[in-house]
Amino acid sequence: MILTGPEITAAAHDGRLTINPFEPDQVNPNSYNVRLGPTLLTYTAPVIDAHHPNPTTAVEIGPGGYVLQPGELYLGHTLEQVGSDTFVPLLFGRSSVGRLGLFVEITAPIGDIGFHGQWTLMLSPIRPLRVYAGMKIGQVMFFVSIGDIDLYRGKYQAATGPQPSRYWRDAARAVAS
């Protein structure tokens, strides 16, 4: 079952889910709009290596926006901290942003129960596109879980700002075992 807009509002007020800051005008019939945070990361190495940390460079989106370029992966983040110890959150791009040719959440829309923080967004434009900090970029839906809950305790917990991949930590553990 998916939470309706009024239930998202009720759950945000009674603590079953966290949306901070919470803005009532961002509640939809069955989702909550999240906004683009002010920082973007890009990888700087010519080859990204899954088994090693990869260098990044940060860009702050100024008042005039920032032009995303095709063929580049940008790691952005939600302005809001979102999470729940009760519900399963899923984040998708907004259709109006998709109609501008921007892929917002390419491969990882599902959040873990127990994660609380800003979500890293994987942004990839089809053509040059100017984006702005604070623009509504995605929407989070919350689903009811069935069964025992094992809360998330992973490597991205309490994230602030965009987070580069930490896949290399998993790869190093696999090689060591």
UniProtKB/TrEMBL annotation:
Signal peptide: none
GO biological process: dUTP biosynthetic process; nucleobase-containing small molecule interconversion
SUPFAM superfamilies: dUTPase-like (SSF51283)
InterPro entries the record matches: dCTP_deaminase (IPR011962), dUTPase-like_sf (IPR036157), dUTPase_trimeric (IPR033704)
Enzyme Commission identifier(s): 3.5.4.13
Entry keyword Hydrolase: yes
Alphabetized Pfam families for the sequence: DCD
GO molecular function, one term: dCTP deaminase activity
UniProt keyword list: Hydrolase, Nucleotide metabolism
Domain of life: Bacteria
Entry protein name: Deoxycytidine triphosphate deaminase
Naturally occurring in which organism (per UniProt): Streptomyces olivochromogenes
